[in-house]
């Protein structure tokens, strides 16, 4: 469409300007879309050219290898976490039994059997109790010595507390005995 065709149809210059402006908007939008598609096509062709000579089966093999390695690492990390949790449970349970040396008690525990146990906490406690029963010398004595009676003071009398001693000291100073 051009201006001469519109003049031949009898349009005024104002009408022609309006029609041309509207037509330009439509055409410019279509041109913009065309340019965008053209750019996308060029980028896609460049990307496809970069894949020329690539062995797809080799890439699949690498992907499979990496996936397997990732799964193995995940299993290894789970083992390490389980090992750490078991050791923490073992040490925290040992604290309650007060061993003289934790490392000295360890040879008497069947660690592999305790790791495989379904109820680790109860089995660890039972194992510590068995070792404590058989090898009590490995554990600290938990009995606290009891004082039977107060000891006698210098005069042969038992002094009960500091208040009584203070009163006796004041009486001796004041001479009121």
**Helix content percent band:** over 70%
Major sheet characteristics: none
Assess the beta-strand content as a share of residues: under 5%
Strand segment count: 0
Poorly predicted segments: none
Distance, first to last CA: 137 Å
H/E element sequence: HHHHHHH
Number of alpha- plus pi-helical segments: 7
Overall average pLDDT = 84
**Structural class, from secondary structure content?**
mainly alpha
As a whole number of angstroms, the C-alpha radius of gyration is 47 Å
What features would you highlight for this structure?
70% helix, 7 helices, mainly alpha, 177 residues
Describe the protein's architecture and organization:
With 177 residues, the chain is an all-alpha fold. The protein folds into two domains: 3-50; 56-138. It is built from seven helices and no strands. It has helices at residues 3-8, 13-50, 56-97, 102-105, 111-116, 120-134, 162-174. Helix 3 crosses helix 6 (120-134). The longest helix has 42 residues, at 56-97. It is elongated.
Task: Present the secondary structure layout.
Blueprint: H1 3-8, H2 13-50, H3 56-97, H4 102-105, H5 111-116, H6 120-134, H7 162-174
Q: Briefly, what is this?
A:
The protein is an all-alpha fold and 177 residues long. It has helices spanning 3-8, 13-50, 56-97, 102-105, 111-116, 120-134, 162-174. It has two domains: 3-50; 56-138.
